[in-house]
Predict the structure.
Amino acid sequence: MTGAELTIDLLAKHGVNEVFGYPGGAIMPIYDALYGAPVKHYLTRHEQGAGFAAVGYARSTRKLGVCFATSGPGATNLITALADAMMDSVPLLAITGQVPTAAIGSDAFQEIDVLGMSLSCTKHSYMVERAEDLAEILQEAIHLAQSGRPGPVLVDIPKDIQMAQVPFKPWLAADEYLPELDLKQVAIANQLLSEAKQPVAYVGGGVQAADAQDELMQFLNKTQMPAVSTLKALGSVLPDYEHYLGMLGMHGGQAANIAVQECDVLVCIGARFDDRVTGNLAKFAAKAKVIHLDIDAAEVGKRKPAKASLIADLKTSLPALECFVTPKAWCDTNKEMNIKHAWRYDYPGEKVFAPYLLNQLSQRMPKTGVVCCDVGQHQMWVAQHMKFTHPSNHLSSGGAGTMGFGLPAAIGAQVARPDDFVITVSGDGSIMMNIQELATIRRNNLPVKILILDNQRLGMVRQWQELFFEGRYSETNLSDNPDFVQLAAVFGIPGQTITHANQVDDAITALVNSKGPYIVHACIDDKENVWPLVPPGAANDEMMTEKAK
Amino acid sequence: MKHSLTIALKSQSIAVERFLRVVRHRGFDLTHFQLNMDDGFYNVDMTVDSDKPIHLLTSQLNKLVDVKEVTLQNLQQQQAV
């Protein structure tokens, strides 16, 4: 068996049925081994598209996402997707072809030091130096990507090793080191909870990584604790939970941000006090004692000290917390705040109002559907105005904030979940970052839906230029955008443009009922901003609102 | 504040690159570095300087797959004794 054949064989043995990639010189033996193999390959039109499709595949299923690229520019094109997976803890395996071993270090054609380049954007990475090590490395890489805190792992395989005869050596994962709960810390946490008058649960992306939604909801239902969510955790707290206050942070809801600022105990569940969440860290939840639950010890105390740290799998640590019932007065206060600051959709104008459109879409699309976002104003509107019942149904580039994520991520999600409704909500800036992947939708007859919120601007940057740079609109005008419906039509994707509020309902009907791919190009007011907003350097209860701007 | 650490790691050049990248990126200046091969591992003695608490570095180093052990000695405390 050659190294290339072994690579494909091992993937199949580990349950990898679908991979995404783009061939080239140094990875040709692996593509040859793919020919006729049981692993189905999806050809994207750019390696970054392959990387994000694999991320979408992984995030929509919690399975390993796999992508292939050739050496040199093929591998460099994957780097952004690796960085995205690193920041959002996504189990991803990237396999890159490398120039033959004898040519490494000679500046050969399409030679780049991919291993060196991978160091800052992978959980771990390898370059295979000996054919006899290939099997062990691949098996270890597959294990590492999915174990503990998941993350991207890269394996760079020189072409001669792909072509060499290689032995298969079964590799047995060493007993996985999983931190054991420190019972003293559990006791401290339970003492803090027993004394709490105004506790809040701050829920992060770790809940999805740990598949701990059931444990989270059991804890919340028993304690009746008010809960807020990070961008990545949306869907973890069920939207009909009586004490759910929505997303916190820079564009979080006012009720969520105020509750956190006022709380006396903050139970951080698989979150990492990201700067977009905390605003001014010194003023963030300043009165709160923190109980921090995370599988990654490096996150505890990294940004905010914890009084109790439960370093373990959330499936273990959440049930260890005693379920003291939250004082009713605190719950009532937050309920009132939630009603007082509820989103409003009574937009007076005749133009398409993006929050209304997204809220209607959320109500009318299947609850099992997947929404993939790009980055910017539309991303925040999705987070604010759509509801999710599982974090695998909301794929948004959180830590890295990568424009161009949405379309290829939706392709990956649709491949992984062929029977589910999958839509990418994008902006006119973001969609152009990986627009070539319309060809991948066409090639594979994928029924991916596309909604573009088009303000002919790089809207979020424009918003900041308006608010914080004295209206100096440097390089954010995109009024020379192409006709997106015509552009999609070239790839065989039907659709429509809407410009008025009275067209919204019919457009959603067309999107939801379409059996194949469909695009709605919604033209919105270029001056529309995302509210509320915590300005730079401010505390989360110092939000700017539309009226106060 | 200066801190002295001893690190045992896999004896591969890439392992050294990987952990030194973390030292730099997490905001610690290298002021002393010595590497010896021992029993199939690299043993590194190093001193770093930073205003940041040292646990922010050791917790990141402990996550690296190639790193087998991180031992910390507080240099200023040592000198005081």
In short: The CA atoms of residues 33 and 62 of chain B lie 18 Å apart. Chain B has three helices and four strands.
